[in-house]
Specification:
CATH class: Mainly Beta
Order of helices and strands: EEEEEEEEEEEEEEEEEEEEEEEEEEEEEE
Mean pLDDT: 80
Low-confidence stretches: 1-15, 17-39, 387-396, 406-444
Shape: globular
Number of domains: 1
Strand content: 25-35%
Length: 444
Protein backbone atom coordinates (compact mmCIF):
# COMPACT_ATOMS: atom_id res chain seq x y z
CA UNK A 1 0.00 0.00 0.00
CA UNK A 2 1.40 3.38 -0.96
CA UNK A 3 1.91 5.98 1.73
CA UNK A 4 -0.65 8.31 0.13
CA UNK A 5 -3.48 5.91 0.94
CA UNK A 6 -2.68 5.62 4.64
CA UNK A 7 -5.30 7.27 6.82
CA UNK A 8 -4.33 10.57 8.44
CA UNK A 9 -0.90 10.81 6.80
CA UNK A 10 -0.35 14.30 5.49
CA UNK A 11 2.29 16.45 3.90
CA UNK A 12 4.37 19.58 4.24
CA UNK A 13 6.64 21.87 2.33
CA UNK A 14 9.08 24.62 3.03
CA UNK A 15 11.81 26.67 1.44
CA UNK A 16 15.12 27.59 3.01
CA UNK A 17 17.74 29.85 1.51
CA UNK A 18 21.39 30.62 2.10
CA UNK A 19 23.13 33.32 0.12
CA UNK A 20 20.53 33.51 -2.70
CA UNK A 21 19.21 36.01 -3.74
CA UNK A 22 -8.37 41.06 5.13
CA UNK A 23 -9.39 43.57 6.70
CA UNK A 24 -7.27 46.52 7.75
CA UNK A 25 -6.02 46.82 11.30
CA UNK A 26 -5.76 50.00 13.32
CA UNK A 27 -3.43 48.64 15.97
CA UNK A 28 -0.03 50.30 16.11
CA UNK A 29 2.99 48.06 15.72
CA UNK A 30 6.73 48.39 15.40
CA UNK A 31 8.36 46.90 12.30
CA UNK A 32 9.41 43.29 12.63
CA UNK A 33 12.86 41.96 11.73
CA UNK A 34 13.16 40.35 8.31
CA UNK A 35 12.19 36.69 8.02
CA UNK A 36 15.04 34.28 7.50
CA UNK A 37 12.91 31.45 6.12
CA UNK A 38 9.42 30.95 4.72
CA UNK A 39 7.98 27.47 4.85
CA UNK A 40 4.91 25.26 5.28
CA UNK A 41 4.33 22.22 7.42
CA UNK A 42 1.18 20.30 8.34
CA UNK A 43 -1.34 20.78 11.18
CA UNK A 44 0.97 22.69 13.48
CA UNK A 45 2.77 26.02 13.46
CA UNK A 46 6.22 27.14 14.58
CA UNK A 47 7.01 30.77 15.44
CA UNK A 48 10.53 32.09 15.88
CA UNK A 49 11.11 35.27 17.88
CA UNK A 50 14.00 37.66 17.33
CA UNK A 51 15.52 36.59 20.66
CA UNK A 52 15.92 33.07 19.23
CA UNK A 53 13.07 31.51 21.20
CA UNK A 54 10.90 28.97 19.37
CA UNK A 55 7.15 28.89 20.06
CA UNK A 56 4.80 26.15 18.83
CA UNK A 57 1.04 25.53 18.60
CA UNK A 58 -1.48 23.31 16.81
CA UNK A 59 -1.68 19.50 16.74
CA UNK A 60 0.82 17.53 18.84
CA UNK A 61 -0.06 13.91 18.06
CA UNK A 62 3.55 12.93 17.40
CA UNK A 63 5.25 15.45 19.67
CA UNK A 64 5.82 17.86 16.78
CA UNK A 65 5.31 20.82 19.12
CA UNK A 66 8.34 19.82 21.17
CA UNK A 67 6.25 19.20 24.30
CA UNK A 68 4.55 16.14 25.82
CA UNK A 69 1.17 17.91 26.03
CA UNK A 70 -1.53 15.96 24.17
CA UNK A 71 0.90 13.49 22.59
CA UNK A 72 -0.99 10.63 20.97
CA UNK A 73 -4.22 12.55 20.41
CA UNK A 74 -5.56 15.17 18.00
CA UNK A 75 -6.64 17.74 20.58
CA UNK A 76 -5.99 21.36 19.61
CA UNK A 77 -3.18 23.25 21.32
CA UNK A 78 -3.89 26.87 20.38
CA UNK A 79 -1.72 28.58 23.02
CA UNK A 80 1.86 29.14 21.78
CA UNK A 81 4.46 27.61 24.11
CA UNK A 82 8.20 28.18 24.13
CA UNK A 83 10.21 25.00 23.52
CA UNK A 84 13.73 26.06 22.48
CA UNK A 85 16.16 28.98 22.60
CA UNK A 86 19.00 30.22 20.37
CA UNK A 87 17.12 29.13 17.22
CA UNK A 88 17.76 30.80 13.86
CA UNK A 89 15.54 28.81 11.47
CA UNK A 90 12.62 26.37 11.65
CA UNK A 91 10.80 23.92 9.38
CA UNK A 92 7.55 22.03 9.96
CA UNK A 93 6.84 18.81 8.10
CA UNK A 94 3.91 16.42 8.10
CA UNK A 95 4.09 15.50 11.76
CA UNK A 96 7.68 16.51 12.48
CA UNK A 97 9.68 19.67 13.13
CA UNK A 98 13.23 20.84 12.52
CA UNK A 99 15.03 23.63 14.38
CA UNK A 100 18.40 25.08 13.40
CA UNK A 101 20.36 26.78 16.16
CA UNK A 102 22.82 29.65 15.73
CA UNK A 103 25.75 27.31 16.32
CA UNK A 104 24.77 25.29 13.23
CA UNK A 105 23.33 22.32 15.11
CA UNK A 106 20.11 20.71 13.88
CA UNK A 107 17.48 19.63 16.40
CA UNK A 108 14.46 17.47 15.48
CA UNK A 109 11.24 16.32 17.17
CA UNK A 110 7.90 14.72 16.31
CA UNK A 111 7.08 11.80 14.02
CA UNK A 112 10.00 9.53 13.12
CA UNK A 113 8.07 6.64 11.57
CA UNK A 114 10.06 6.97 8.35
CA UNK A 115 13.31 8.31 9.74
CA UNK A 116 12.43 11.94 9.00
CA UNK A 117 14.05 13.08 12.27
CA UNK A 118 17.45 11.88 11.06
CA UNK A 119 17.99 9.54 14.02
CA UNK A 120 17.44 5.87 14.79
CA UNK A 121 15.42 6.48 17.98
CA UNK A 122 11.86 5.23 17.34
CA UNK A 123 12.53 5.15 13.59
CA UNK A 124 9.97 2.90 11.96
CA UNK A 125 7.50 3.27 14.85
CA UNK A 126 4.52 5.52 15.54
CA UNK A 127 5.80 6.61 18.96
CA UNK A 128 5.84 10.36 19.65
CA UNK A 129 9.23 12.06 20.03
CA UNK A 130 8.49 15.32 21.86
CA UNK A 131 12.02 16.02 23.10
CA UNK A 132 14.15 18.10 20.68
CA UNK A 133 17.32 16.12 19.96
CA UNK A 134 20.48 17.18 18.13
CA UNK A 135 21.21 15.14 14.99
CA UNK A 136 23.64 17.18 12.85
CA UNK A 137 26.11 20.08 12.94
CA UNK A 138 27.48 22.54 10.40
CA UNK A 139 23.97 23.16 9.06
CA UNK A 140 22.98 26.38 7.27
CA UNK A 141 19.38 25.78 6.11
CA UNK A 142 16.56 23.24 6.52
CA UNK A 143 13.37 22.11 4.78
CA UNK A 144 10.68 19.60 5.76
CA UNK A 145 8.34 17.68 3.49
CA UNK A 146 5.53 15.30 4.33
CA UNK A 147 7.76 12.54 5.63
CA UNK A 148 11.22 13.62 4.50
CA UNK A 149 13.74 16.28 5.44
CA UNK A 150 16.35 18.27 3.54
CA UNK A 151 19.42 19.75 5.21
CA UNK A 152 21.78 22.22 3.57
CA UNK A 153 25.21 22.48 5.14
CA UNK A 154 27.37 25.60 5.15
CA UNK A 155 29.63 24.07 2.51
CA UNK A 156 26.71 23.82 0.06
CA UNK A 157 26.24 20.07 0.41
CA UNK A 158 22.65 18.76 0.49
CA UNK A 159 21.78 15.95 2.90
CA UNK A 160 18.44 14.07 3.03
CA UNK A 161 16.63 11.52 5.21
CA UNK A 162 13.14 10.07 5.73
CA UNK A 163 10.68 8.59 3.24
CA UNK A 164 12.11 7.86 -0.21
CA UNK A 165 9.19 6.08 -1.86
CA UNK A 166 9.22 8.49 -4.78
CA UNK A 167 12.90 9.38 -4.85
CA UNK A 168 12.37 12.57 -2.84
CA UNK A 169 15.68 11.99 -1.04
CA UNK A 170 17.59 12.28 -4.31
CA UNK A 171 18.94 8.72 -4.27
CA UNK A 172 17.73 5.25 -5.22
CA UNK A 173 17.70 3.79 -1.70
CA UNK A 174 14.34 2.16 -0.91
CA UNK A 175 12.55 3.74 -3.89
CA UNK A 176 9.05 2.31 -4.26
CA UNK A 177 8.91 1.26 -0.60
CA UNK A 178 7.75 2.84 2.65
CA UNK A 179 10.90 1.87 4.54
CA UNK A 180 12.45 4.31 6.96
CA UNK A 181 15.74 6.00 6.04
CA UNK A 182 16.99 7.71 9.24
CA UNK A 183 20.63 8.21 8.24
CA UNK A 184 21.45 11.62 6.69
CA UNK A 185 22.97 11.05 3.24
CA UNK A 186 24.67 13.58 0.96
CA UNK A 187 23.09 13.79 -2.50
CA UNK A 188 24.25 17.11 -4.03
CA UNK A 189 26.85 19.87 -3.73
CA UNK A 190 26.95 23.54 -4.69
CA UNK A 191 23.39 24.07 -3.42
CA UNK A 192 22.23 27.49 -2.20
CA UNK A 193 18.51 27.00 -1.45
CA UNK A 194 16.13 24.09 -0.83
CA UNK A 195 12.38 23.47 -0.84
CA UNK A 196 10.55 20.32 0.25
CA UNK A 197 7.16 19.53 -1.23
CA UNK A 198 4.83 16.76 -0.15
CA UNK A 199 6.72 14.00 -1.96
CA UNK A 200 9.12 16.01 -4.11
CA UNK A 201 12.15 18.22 -3.56
CA UNK A 202 13.70 21.31 -5.16
CA UNK A 203 17.34 22.38 -4.96
CA UNK A 204 18.55 25.75 -6.21
CA UNK A 205 22.26 25.89 -6.96
CA UNK A 206 24.45 28.94 -6.53
CA UNK A 207 24.58 29.42 -10.29
CA UNK A 208 20.79 29.90 -10.44
CA UNK A 209 19.98 26.47 -11.87
CA UNK A 210 16.94 24.65 -10.43
CA UNK A 211 17.18 20.91 -9.85
CA UNK A 212 14.21 18.67 -8.93
CA UNK A 213 13.61 15.08 -7.82
CA UNK A 214 10.87 12.89 -6.33
CA UNK A 215 7.21 12.39 -7.27
CA UNK A 216 6.17 13.81 -10.66
CA UNK A 217 2.59 12.60 -11.09
CA UNK A 218 1.37 16.18 -11.64
CA UNK A 219 4.46 17.53 -13.38
CA UNK A 220 5.70 19.19 -10.18
CA UNK A 221 9.31 18.43 -11.13
CA UNK A 222 9.05 20.65 -14.21
CA UNK A 223 10.01 17.83 -16.56
CA UNK A 224 8.14 15.40 -18.81
CA UNK A 225 10.10 12.44 -17.45
CA UNK A 226 7.60 10.12 -15.73
CA UNK A 227 5.12 13.00 -15.60
CA UNK A 228 1.64 11.71 -14.88
CA UNK A 229 2.97 8.47 -13.41
CA UNK A 230 3.88 7.23 -9.93
CA UNK A 231 7.37 6.14 -11.00
CA UNK A 232 10.09 7.41 -8.62
CA UNK A 233 12.52 10.04 -9.92
CA UNK A 234 15.51 9.81 -7.57
CA UNK A 235 18.07 11.55 -9.80
CA UNK A 236 18.29 15.36 -9.41
CA UNK A 237 17.55 16.90 -12.82
CA UNK A 238 18.11 20.47 -13.98
CA UNK A 239 14.88 22.09 -15.20
CA UNK A 240 15.40 25.88 -15.15
CA UNK A 241 18.09 28.59 -15.11
CA UNK A 242 18.21 32.13 -13.75
CA UNK A 243 16.16 31.22 -10.67
CA UNK A 244 16.34 33.29 -7.48
CA UNK A 245 13.65 31.84 -5.17
CA UNK A 246 11.62 28.62 -4.94
CA UNK A 247 8.66 27.07 -3.13
CA UNK A 248 7.17 23.57 -3.19
CA UNK A 249 3.55 22.71 -2.43
CA UNK A 250 1.49 19.55 -2.21
CA UNK A 251 1.79 18.72 -5.90
CA UNK A 252 2.99 21.96 -7.45
CA UNK A 253 6.11 24.13 -7.54
CA UNK A 254 6.87 27.86 -7.80
CA UNK A 255 10.05 29.48 -9.11
CA UNK A 256 10.91 33.19 -9.15
CA UNK A 257 13.51 34.22 -11.70
CA UNK A 258 16.12 36.93 -11.26
CA UNK A 259 13.92 39.37 -13.21
CA UNK A 260 11.03 38.92 -10.73
CA UNK A 261 8.89 36.77 -13.02
CA UNK A 262 6.97 33.94 -11.33
CA UNK A 263 6.86 30.56 -13.05
CA UNK A 264 4.64 27.67 -11.92
CA UNK A 265 4.25 23.97 -12.76
CA UNK A 266 2.50 20.86 -11.43
CA UNK A 267 -1.01 20.23 -10.13
CA UNK A 268 -3.55 22.87 -11.16
CA UNK A 269 -6.87 21.32 -10.16
CA UNK A 270 -7.71 24.32 -7.98
CA UNK A 271 -5.89 27.02 -9.94
CA UNK A 272 -2.82 26.89 -7.69
CA UNK A 273 -0.58 27.54 -10.71
CA UNK A 274 -2.26 30.89 -11.35
CA UNK A 275 -3.51 29.84 -14.79
CA UNK A 276 -6.77 28.46 -16.17
CA UNK A 277 -5.01 25.55 -17.87
CA UNK A 278 -6.46 22.22 -16.75
CA UNK A 279 -8.42 23.66 -13.83
CA UNK A 280 -10.67 21.07 -12.24
CA UNK A 281 -8.92 18.06 -13.77
CA UNK A 282 -6.09 15.88 -12.56
CA UNK A 283 -3.47 16.06 -15.31
CA UNK A 284 0.23 16.86 -15.33
CA UNK A 285 1.38 20.41 -16.13
CA UNK A 286 5.13 19.95 -16.31
CA UNK A 287 6.07 22.95 -18.48
CA UNK A 288 6.97 26.01 -16.33
CA UNK A 289 4.59 28.87 -17.18
CA UNK A 290 4.99 32.55 -16.33
CA UNK A 291 2.06 33.99 -14.39
CA UNK A 292 3.23 37.19 -12.62
CA UNK A 293 5.97 39.82 -12.64
CA UNK A 294 7.58 41.91 -9.92
CA UNK A 295 7.58 39.00 -7.45
CA UNK A 296 10.17 38.78 -4.67
CA UNK A 297 8.89 35.97 -2.43
CA UNK A 298 6.59 32.98 -2.81
CA UNK A 299 4.94 30.37 -0.61
CA UNK A 300 3.12 27.18 -1.61
CA UNK A 301 0.47 25.43 0.47
CA UNK A 302 -1.22 22.15 -0.25
CA UNK A 303 -3.37 23.53 -3.06
CA UNK A 304 -2.91 27.29 -2.86
CA UNK A 305 -0.14 29.77 -3.59
CA UNK A 306 0.99 33.15 -2.27
CA UNK A 307 3.12 35.66 -4.17
CA UNK A 308 4.60 38.78 -2.57
CA UNK A 309 5.52 41.60 -4.94
CA UNK A 310 8.27 44.17 -4.49
CA UNK A 311 5.67 46.87 -3.75
CA UNK A 312 4.40 44.92 -0.72
CA UNK A 313 1.21 43.68 -2.38
CA UNK A 314 0.14 40.09 -1.68
CA UNK A 315 -1.39 38.06 -4.48
CA UNK A 316 -3.10 34.69 -3.90
CA UNK A 317 -4.60 31.92 -6.04
CA UNK A 318 -5.77 28.31 -5.78
CA UNK A 319 -7.99 26.48 -3.30
CA UNK A 320 -10.04 28.70 -0.96
CA UNK A 321 -12.41 26.44 0.96
CA UNK A 322 -11.19 27.78 4.30
CA UNK A 323 -10.47 31.33 3.21
CA UNK A 324 -6.74 30.66 2.95
CA UNK A 325 -6.54 33.06 0.00
CA UNK A 326 -7.70 35.99 2.14
CA UNK A 327 -10.88 36.52 0.14
CA UNK A 328 -14.50 35.36 0.47
CA UNK A 329 -14.57 34.09 -3.12
CA UNK A 330 -15.57 30.43 -3.27
CA UNK A 331 -15.26 29.84 0.48
CA UNK A 332 -16.68 26.42 1.41
CA UNK A 333 -16.51 25.27 -2.21
CA UNK A 334 -13.99 23.24 -4.17
CA UNK A 335 -14.08 25.65 -7.11
CA UNK A 336 -10.71 26.68 -8.57
CA UNK A 337 -9.49 30.26 -8.21
CA UNK A 338 -6.84 30.51 -10.94
CA UNK A 339 -6.61 34.27 -11.29
CA UNK A 340 -3.95 35.86 -9.04
CA UNK A 341 -5.80 38.40 -6.90
CA UNK A 342 -4.35 41.15 -4.75
CA UNK A 343 -5.68 40.77 -1.22
CA UNK A 344 -3.44 42.98 0.91
CA UNK A 345 -0.86 45.76 0.79
CA UNK A 346 2.00 46.55 3.13
CA UNK A 347 2.99 42.90 3.42
CA UNK A 348 6.59 42.00 4.22
CA UNK A 349 6.52 38.22 4.74
CA UNK A 350 4.28 35.26 3.84
CA UNK A 351 4.07 31.57 4.68
CA UNK A 352 1.61 28.96 3.40
CA UNK A 353 0.23 26.02 5.33
CA UNK A 354 -1.91 23.22 3.99
CA UNK A 355 -5.15 25.15 4.31
CA UNK A 356 -4.07 28.29 6.11
CA UNK A 357 -1.69 31.17 5.55
CA UNK A 358 0.38 33.42 7.79
CA UNK A 359 1.21 36.99 6.85
CA UNK A 360 3.23 39.87 8.27
CA UNK A 361 1.56 43.19 7.50
CA UNK A 362 2.38 46.56 9.03
CA UNK A 363 4.27 44.87 11.84
CA UNK A 364 1.47 42.43 12.73
CA UNK A 365 1.00 38.70 12.24
CA UNK A 366 -2.23 37.74 10.49
CA UNK A 367 -3.55 34.19 10.21
CA UNK A 368 -6.07 33.05 7.61
CA UNK A 369 -7.97 29.81 7.08
CA UNK A 370 -8.41 26.48 8.83
CA UNK A 371 -8.16 26.34 12.65
CA UNK A 372 -9.36 22.88 13.74
CA UNK A 373 -6.10 22.16 15.57
CA UNK A 374 -5.42 25.69 16.82
CA UNK A 375 -2.83 26.27 14.10
CA UNK A 376 -3.90 29.92 13.83
CA UNK A 377 -2.70 30.49 17.38
CA UNK A 378 -6.20 31.11 18.72
CA UNK A 379 -8.86 28.94 20.36
CA UNK A 380 -11.56 30.42 18.14
CA UNK A 381 -13.46 27.61 16.38
CA UNK A 382 -11.06 24.84 17.41
CA UNK A 383 -12.49 21.43 16.46
CA UNK A 384 -15.27 23.00 14.40
CA UNK A 385 -15.97 23.55 10.73
CA UNK A 386 -17.06 27.14 11.37
CA UNK A 387 -15.63 30.18 9.65
CA UNK A 388 -13.06 32.26 11.54
CA UNK A 389 -14.28 35.87 11.46
CA UNK A 390 -12.08 38.90 12.03
CA UNK A 391 -11.24 39.62 15.67
CA UNK A 392 -9.73 42.66 17.37
CA UNK A 393 -6.10 42.91 16.29
CA UNK A 394 -3.52 41.71 18.79
CA UNK A 395 0.07 42.59 18.01
CA UNK A 396 2.79 39.97 18.28
CA UNK A 397 6.20 41.54 18.72
CA UNK A 398 9.69 40.53 17.67
CA UNK A 399 8.84 37.50 15.56
CA UNK A 400 11.23 36.71 12.74
CA UNK A 401 9.97 33.45 11.27
CA UNK A 402 6.77 31.43 11.13
CA UNK A 403 6.19 27.91 9.88
CA UNK A 404 2.47 27.19 9.54
CA UNK A 405 0.93 23.76 9.70
CA UNK A 406 -0.81 22.22 6.75
CA UNK A 407 -3.26 19.42 6.00
CA UNK A 408 -2.63 17.80 2.64
CA UNK A 409 -4.88 16.05 0.17
CA UNK A 410 -2.11 14.21 -1.64
CA UNK A 411 -4.27 12.28 -4.04
CA UNK A 412 -2.66 10.87 -7.13
CA UNK A 413 -4.40 9.25 -10.10
CA UNK A 414 -6.75 6.62 -8.73
CA UNK A 415 -5.82 7.37 -5.13
CA UNK A 416 -8.01 8.24 -2.18
CA UNK A 417 -7.63 11.32 -0.02
CA UNK A 418 -5.40 11.01 3.02
CA UNK A 419 -7.54 13.40 5.02
CA UNK A 420 -8.98 10.62 7.15
CA UNK A 421 -10.40 12.91 9.83
CA UNK A 422 -12.87 14.46 7.42
CA UNK A 423 -13.04 11.62 4.85
CA UNK A 424 -12.31 14.03 2.02
CA UNK A 425 -10.94 17.45 1.29
CA UNK A 426 -14.36 19.07 1.14
CA UNK A 427 -15.46 19.05 4.77
CA UNK A 428 -13.75 22.07 6.29
CA UNK A 429 -15.25 25.34 7.34
CA UNK A 430 -14.52 28.53 5.42
CA UNK A 431 -12.41 31.09 7.24
CA UNK A 432 -11.37 34.70 6.97
CA UNK A 433 -8.63 36.62 8.72
CA UNK A 434 -7.75 36.21 12.37
CA UNK A 435 -4.91 37.84 14.27
CA UNK A 436 -2.48 35.35 15.80
CA UNK A 437 -3.21 35.34 19.52
CA UNK A 438 -0.68 34.42 22.17
CA UNK A 439 -3.08 33.39 24.90
CA UNK A 440 -1.94 34.05 28.45
CA UNK A 441 1.55 35.15 27.43
CA UNK A 442 2.08 38.63 28.76
CA UNK A 443 4.77 40.70 27.11
CA UNK A 444 5.09 38.46 24.07
Amino acid sequence: MRIRLILLLTAGAMVAVIGVSRPPSTAAAAPLPTLATISAGERHSLVLKSDGSLWTFGENFSGQLGTAINNGNENPNPAPRQVLTDVMAVAAGGFHSLALKHDGTLWTFGDNSLGQLGRASNSGTNNPNPVPTQVMSGVAAIAAGAFHSLVLKADGSLWTFGLNEDGELGNATNNGTVNDNPTPTQVMSGVAAIAAGAFHSLALKGDGTLWTFGWNSSGQLGTAVNSGTTTPNPTPTQVMTGVAAIAAGGGHSLAVKNDGSLWTFGDNRYGQLGTTTNNGIDVANYAPTQVLTGVTKVAAGDEHSLALKSDGSLWTFGFNWDGELGTATNNATANPNPMPTQVMAGVTEVAAGGYHSLIVRNGEWLAIGFNWYGQLGTSLNNETENPNPVVTPLVLKDFVSVVPGRLLDSRGPGSATVDGLFQGIGVRGAGSVTELVVAGRGGV
